[in-house]
Amino acid sequence: MTELLTATDLEQWSERNDSREHLPTLVRRLILAVAAPETLRMPAAEAVGLPGLDGEVTSPSGAPPFLPFGRSVWELGTGRDPEDKAQRDYRKRVDGSTRDERAGVVFVFVTSRRWPGAQRWVDRRTEDGDGWAGIRVVDAEDLAAWLALCPGVHRWLASEQLGWDPHGVIGLRDWYRNWAERTRPAIPAALLLAGRDDRVRSLRDRLRAKPVEQVVASASRDESVAFVAASLMAEPPQDVSIVSRQMSDSPVDRAGGSEDPLGAVDDTELGELVGPPIAEEGDAAMGLARTTGAPAGLEALLERALVVEDMRAWRRVAAHESPMVLVPVFAEPEIGDGLRAGHHVVLPRAGRPADDRLPRLHRHLAREAWIAAGLDHDRADEYGRAARRSLASLRRRIGRPGWLRQPRWASDATANLLAPLLLAGAWADDVQGDLEALQSLTDRGWRATARDLSTLTSGEDAPLLLRDRRWEFADPVDAWDALNHALTAEDLDAFQSLAPGVLGESDPASGLTARERIAGWLSETGAPRRRHSSTLRRGMATTAVILGAVVGDRELPGGVTGQQRASRVVRELLQDANAARWHAVADLLPRLRPREWCTTCP
Fold first, then answer.
1. CA 124, CA 534: separation in Å to the nearest integer?
2. By Cβ atoms counted within 10 A, which residue in 201, 235, 401, 413 is the most buried?
3. Taking the CA atoms of the chain, what radius of gyration do you get in angstroms?
4. Is residue 306 exposed (0-12), middle (13-18) or buried (19+ Cβ within 10 Å)?
5. pLDDT band at 241; cut points 50, 70, 90
6. Which residues does 463 contact at the CB level (< 8 Å), separation at least 6?
């Protein structure tokens, strides 16, 4: 953590033209860091020139010695002659109000300059007997002392206003902004809350109660921290048409069974997976202004919430007397020190699927959050689907160049393991035909492959999802971006040879009568099914679309473009197709959509 700011630092800051715009922000954040006022008005930035008071606060408890209890009016200045500014503002407020209006109200003047004669000025104004409940001055020395009690605000002023490079602690609000703005458009706070209303209420209730330790677990530690921040910044998005429905996942399909609407392909629309996002950088999709709507009382909690990055900083902030919300992001923090000092401790974790993790984001509500952040419906729907599947993958896809690292599984032996499986896209490990197809693609048996994949379905930023023995890539497009370098010409040849047979396999039950189907279901062997599961067929159809529409005219190993590879598969699948073949692929045609990317297909 950086050294403490001094009154001299604040004097130097006051020489900057923008200090006048940001002093109200500083005072507002300091107030919220020590109290939860009933009302708080403190216009900042371009609003500083508006007529009227610089600030009004109502705080039943106050926060001595800086924030008076009850109602107070505030005037602020950064000029070199604080006494002249204070006198002019004081006279204006006295002349513009009645004695009855001033009764019970404290007048506060804040200057970012040193003012040695401040107390004499207060004494003279008190002798004037203008009817104020009190008169106070907060100068640069007082602000420096106030900042020392508020590490998050201190860090904000030091780093963002003074250009220092503090380490070890950052305000939760500022951490979220840095995290969110690594993508374009930035991640709106409400997105983190989509379909997680119960968890939001639980977190807020516990932060308002007696200080305790609580764990927030999700697919990654960063997502857990972002959820905590968003819970204090925004309200969960709502969609009147769906909020009354039961929000639960459908079971993943069995081979030959029903399709899972949340499955590998259904959650991935490929028509517009590439191309620049619509929202411009200036939209600051932070959307903190657009997506907020959390109760005003939460802002005080947010201002006192700190992300602590190392043990040294932890020991320092844990000793603060003002109660805070501490979010450690390093291993083995001394939790007891924080709790004994009266701080809440929130532990962000990357949990396994079996842990009590945050529920997956709700697709439709995630779409609403993106729409509120300024995206059009189609792009919002695409991003909502992708966020539900893997927020980390979506962030990589829309990340600013150089800001987000490639995942660890995209390098070395792991990439070589995953790349040929990427061509399958999804599969069922209890369907023999699928295992044979995988062996054709990987040139190795399933038992060895499954052993190596066991660590890639859980933990932070896992590339694979495994449910009910159905495997799928969390985000096929993101996986293609990360793994295509590990593909060989032989891998692609194997896919091109295998795909038409898998995609065009006839359904042996299609010609049966209802009576015959029922008899088959009741028999020991069951109704006749395809050798390959619908999971694999959907997965390989997705691969064909990615090759044709996403990879497109980019050349792959072997000197053939992605579109050429996909076109060859579709031509072999549909060229001179008879009625039986068209019937066999009917369920895949809406997914393949060859006319959108294949100019030589039938």
1. 85
2. 235
3. 30
4. buried
5. low
6. 407, 409, 418, 456, 473, 474, 479, 482
Tell me which of 287 and 561 has the higher pLDDT.
561
Do residues 68 and 136 lie in contact, with contact meaning Cβ atoms separated by under 8 Å? yes
- Predicted TM-score (pTM) of the model is 0.67
Distance CA 102, CA 197 (A): 43
Tokens of 77: 């200045």
Give the integer Cα–Cα distance in Å for 263 and 467.
Answer: 10
What is the 8-class DSSP label of residue 138? Answer: E
Rounded CA separation 181/280 (Å): 12
What the chain holds in terms of domains, given with CATH numbers, is 7-149 (3.40.91), 169-237+283-397 (no CATH), 408-596 (no CATH)
Residue with tokens 């990055």: 309
Token pair 């005003």: residue: 296
User: How confident is the model over 400-442, as pLDDT tens digits?
Assistant: 887 777 888 988 789 999 999 999 999 999 999 999 999 999 9
Instruction: List CB contacts of 25: < 8 A, sequence separation 6 or more.
Output: 42, 44, 45
On the question of pLDDT at 557 being above 70, the answer is yes
Which residues, in sequence order, are bridge partners of residue 106? 72, 134
Q: What is the pLDDT of residue 589?
A: 77
For 63-111, how does the pLDDT look when each residue is reduced to its tens digit (9 = 90+)?
989 999 999 999 999 999 999 999 999 999 999 999 999 999 999 999 9
Question: What does the block give as tokens for 506?
Answer: 């006839």
| Range in 200-214, 229-243, 487-501 with the lowest mean pLDDT | 229-243
Least Cα distance to 279 among 368, 391, 187 occurs for 187
Q: Is the pLDDT of residue 260 over 70?
A: no
Q: Tell me what the mean pLDDT of segment 143-149 comes to.
A: 91
pLDDT of 279 reads 34
Q: How far apart are CA 139 and CA 122, in angstroms?
A: 12
Distance of CA 188 to the CA centre of its chain: 7
Count of beta carbons in the 10 Å neighbourhood of residue 48: 16
Q: Please report, as a single letter, which amino acid is at residue 210.
A: K
Q: What is the DSSP letter of 113?
A: S
% the chain with pLDDT above 70: 83
Closest C-alpha among 566, 573, 534 to residue 550:
566
Residue 210: exposure state from Cβ atoms within 10 A (0-12, 13-18, ≥19) = exposed
Q: What stretch of H or E contains 511? A: none
Enclosing H/E stretch for 71: strand 70-77
**DSSP 8-state secondary structure symbol assigned to residue 551:** I
- Cβ(181)–Cβ(283) below 8 Å: no
Helices (H) and strands (E) in the chain, counts: 27, 15
Cα dist. 468→122, 139, 303, 429 in Å?
73, 65, 43, 9
